[in-house]
User: Fold this.
Amino acid sequence: MDLSTFDPLDPLAESPERRQLRDTVRTLVRDFSPHAHTQALDDAEQFDDALYEQLAAMGVLAIDAPEDVGGIGDLRDQLVVIEELAAGPTSMAAFLIVQFMIIQVLRGYASTPQQHVVLEQLVRGETKVSFSMSEPDGGTDVARAMKTRATKIDSGWRINGTKLWTSGATRAEWLIVIARTREPERSSIDGVTMFLVPTAATGVTVREIDTLGIHGMSTCEVSFDDVHVGHDALIGVEHAGFRQAFATLNREGLNAAAACIGVGRGALEYAANYANQREVFGKVIGAFQVPQHWLADGAVRLEAARSLASRAAAIEVAGGNAELLAQMAKLVASEAAQHITLSGMQLMGGFGFSRELPMQRWFRDVRLWSFAPLNNEMVRNRIGERLLGLPRSY
Ligand SMILES: Cc1cc2nc3c(=O)[nH]c(=O)nc-3n(C[C@H](O)[C@H](O)[C@H](O)COP(=O)(O)OP(=O)(O)OC[C@H]3O[C@@H](n4cnc5c(N)ncnc54)[C@H](O)[C@@H]3O)c2cc1C
Assistant:
């Protein structure tokens, strides 16, 4: 069973080159990250260095980077790679969502020396960068809640504050930090600035947080105690940090949708195989109508998500702005994957509960994308306001 394609004549079907990329990553996952290996790393809460090195060697870490630093491919290739990884080692898909978002920020706003120092190493797999925006007092409403401040001094900037939920910070050499640099004006998103901060800078403390899922990548609290950086740490335009961060939301949302499609597909194939083999009352579980309908609904929702994501990606690659379609894709994909993994857990009974089998890991991991990068309630708010012309509800 392969639920990644329906019909080669589909106008949204992927090119032979992209199909080959999919097959290559799928083979890599099969050989390097079988379920038992992924579960062992999940239990040990360890990043998969060997898989990361393979992805670097394949050039995957450089997808959509500028050509002069070795970039290849575009957003549609990112979606394929993330989907294939999410169906297996989901944490590596989560890591790549951050990697691709950082590439987008640096290619869009980093100075030439910053690109030279960081972006070139990032795409070769020689350095890692994390993104610190969310704070203890708020992620969704981070503009209002932000307490981290950067104060200008003669030699550069001094940063103080605490960030929460920064992915991968224990392994990162660099942090992109969003800090308030001017008091907020009413109804303005300006007044915060992006900085490139070495994790090793004096005053930076990283503390790992124990989380439900995505155990193959750390989730961290990062504190800044009088951290000094030079003027050259500023990324892009002073006070425009939110605009720069929000510009990545469409693609980050689409990459999150791809991760959910990957989890949903992996879980659906697994559940359907299980339902075809496990017998109760003299027939396989899949012969009963209720579990069959759960799985059929999962297949429909997954396909709807895939169509939305393909359409939104095509618009983005053509230079358009697929904002609402991208958010719709993330919404539909995350809800599809949650439906599928919950159904999978139910129809597998006690085996769903076993940590030796992957269903529970998919079930845990995919929860992330119901509230990140933007929670599904806010996605609905935006659709209500911007598509349907309803009053702003928040
Ligand atoms: C594993 C993990 C990795 C992460 N990685 C990063 C990272 O690398 N960098 C980073 O900056 N952040 C990261 N985050 C943070 C993530 O982006 C936030 O968790 C997310 O934005 C939600 O913010 P919050 O957790 O503060 O929830 P809150 O903002 O407190 O929202 C909680 C809930 O309230 C409801 N809600 C909020 N606003 C509305 C509204 N307007 N209307 C209706 N309902 C609403 C929603 O149900 C929402 O889920 C990560 C989080 C996790 C758990």
Observations:
- Residues 98, 131-134, 138-141, 165-167, 211, 214, 219, 368, 371-373, 375, 377-378, 381, 394 surround flavin-adenine dinucleotide (CB under 6 Å).
- The first helix runs from residue 16 to 32.
- Strands lie at 129-132, 149-153, 156-167, 174-180, 192-198, 204-208, 219-229, 234-235, 279-280, 283-284.
- Residues 130-241 form a domain with the Butyryl-CoA Dehydrogenase, subunit A; domain 2 fold (CATH 2.40.110.10).
